[in-house]
Prior knowledge:
The protein is α/β, with parallel strands linked by helices and about 250 residues long.
Amino acid sequence: MQIQIIPTLSDNYSYLLVEQGEALAIDPGEAAPVAAAIRASDVVLRSVLLTHRHGDHTGGCGALRSAYPCALIGPAECEAVGLDRVVDEGDAVPFGSQSVRVLSIPGHTQGHVAYICDAASAVWTGDTLFVAGCGRILKGVAEMMWRSLQRLRALSEDTAVYCGHDYTEDNLEFAASLLPDDAAIRGRLTEAKRLAKSGRPTVPSTIGLERQTNLFLRADDASVGRAVGLADASAVAVFAELRKRKDAW
């Protein structure tokens, strides 16, 4: 399977999965860049998968559906775009010789899902998990988002992480401001700056790297609790404080 990273809008990533002459698109924020990738790959678009309802992830659906014989697939909260199939936890979407399974990860929105391709050892996390960060809590509570991040953290460490936005450099600057002596965070920040300077994407990350350098996955780490003045607090409280500080960063 070939996985193409497609920059869309100002800082979004959409994705095109290609196998055996067929394609599957994930979160097409706008149609034109995705359509260009389809033409360049000379493939047939079979399905479009949506992680959540926001327009910067669904905006290209209508045009792609008009141009290609594709099915729109996503959680129930995306029904306004005219889904052909609603999916939820435990469902699977066939693609070529592979399948993509659905993981429920609410918090950013109530119905947000991730898509996992075990054969490719990859996960598409939308706006729940970013490289070195996580999404804002718009339709949920801190405990809900923390549970979702724990579910993603539990995936195999070699799982490639493909997220919905490139906020990596800012996320790592935030992390370094709290843990200035953390060598892994400092090293990743240097690498993120190098990639940005050369115009290259910071995705994919891996679950293993995120466990090390994503403070939002480390809310149960004593050093992170101390960094936000909550040494004896619960992981949920530490996570909520991290998200509050990042919202104001």
